[in-house]
Amino acid sequence: xxxxxxxxxxxxxxxxxxxxxxxxxxxxxxxxxxxxxxxxxxxxxxxxxxxxxxxxxxxxxxxxxxxxxxxxxxxxxxxxxxxxxxxxxxxxxxxxxxxxxxxxxxxxxxxxxxxxxxxxxxxxxxxxxxxxxxxxxxxxxxxxxxxxxxxxxxxxxxxxxxxxxxxxxxxxxxxxxxxxxxxxxxxxxxxxxxxxxxxxxxxxxxxxxxxxxxxxxxxxxxxxxxxxxxxxxxxxxxxxxxxxxxxxxxxxxxxxxxxxxxxxxxxxxxxxxxxxxxxxxxxxxxxxxxxxxxxxxxxxxxxxxxxxxxxxxxxxxxxxxxxxxxxxxxxxxxxxxx
Amino acid sequence: xxxxxxxxxxxxxxxxxxxxxxxxxxxxxxxxxxxxxxxxxxxxxxxxxxxxxxxxxxxxxxxxxxxxxxxxxxxxxxxxxxxxxxxxxxxxxxxxxxxxxxxxxxxxxxxxxxxxxxxxxxxxx
Lengths: 338, 125
Description:
- The structure holds 2 protein chains of 2 kinds.
- By secondary structure, chain A is an alpha/beta fold.
- Chain A has 14 helices and 8 strands.
- Chain A has helices at 18-22, 28-37, 48-51, 60-73, 96-112, 126-139, 156-168, 188-196, 201-211, 217-230, 235-240, 244-247, 284-293, 314-337, and strands at 8-13, 43-47, 76-81, 117-120, 142-147, 173-177, 266-270, 298-304.
- The longest helix of chain A is centred in the last third of the chain and has 24 residues, at 314-337.
- In chain A, 44% of the residues are buried.
- Chain B is globular and about 45 Å long.
- By secondary structure, chain B is mainly beta.
- At the A-B interface, helix 1 of A face strand 3 of B.
């Protein structure tokens, strides 16, 4: 029987451990066993194209070994990350039918491994996802659109999905909020990595100041580039900072309440902690109550993404994230009992 | 961080006809070869003509510059590829500065072209 999470339950995505996996420090099985041993389950999220050779083909041998591993570790498959690879041929994007077929193969992989839902990506397009609903129903695998910065609940790309969801009205369609979309600042470790590469302090300050302003992220990115060029910074250094406008948004965490009835999974994005164990870029004290008060039942995968710019120990990071989340969830339960 | 991962540690290996460089896809996930392009291979500052080099993946050899049509060949994220250089100039036990520049376009992110150059000092073995 499928595991039914009660309230907001914790878990890990193996994507957080990209540094350790890519560096061949741990095999897939070793990573999974260590997730269990470190107590950073019970939810386990996997990115198909990262963890499974030959994906979306999943061999019977891999399936048997994976399901045995879940039994052995008491971890619960929470979400399979799938990809909207519409530009495998960079010169000719997939047709809609090709994209539907490409997604179906990945949904079948999810069903084979007993994942209850997939994380899909917005370039798939609402029309392709609508066509997948009968397959999702047949396989009993839900489709979750990841809402990742620079997107947010009111972004036109997301609104197109919300309108399709309202029209189709299927329980197989949902959303996966990524907390990088509702951040309060840029992770300090990102700028630290840029300083090591020779990025000057006043350029970092310019980027930070413009990131904190209001308005469309890509418009702010262009303002940043223009002002930095006017001030004579090298283009190489200017461009090394532009990804902050795409990776982190400063939309209000309360905005997630708008789509709460359709949230099926969470990416608990995180990077750095202060001395009190709080996440610096994402205000967990503010964002978690939105989901608890909203009655969310499902998993939050701890999703560390600092591996994009440093080689910190992913396990240590996830343990800190779980400690923080438990502290907040416990205090919220306490409030509820009073 | 992937900047130091395009060339593997201890990744300069003598062959019967020269050397091969152990290279990795510097990205978190498997990609089709059609989105991968090698832009430069240098040893001790000498740039090689890419047209004359071969790429080896899972035991199969192909011209290094022929990856674009290979939409059905996937480079698994944990597998090494090898760039083969035919040259008698390399000595076992000698150290060389090896640079590889690779670009890739993740097929789900329109407009993103990641370019990563890794330079390592490697002893031929």
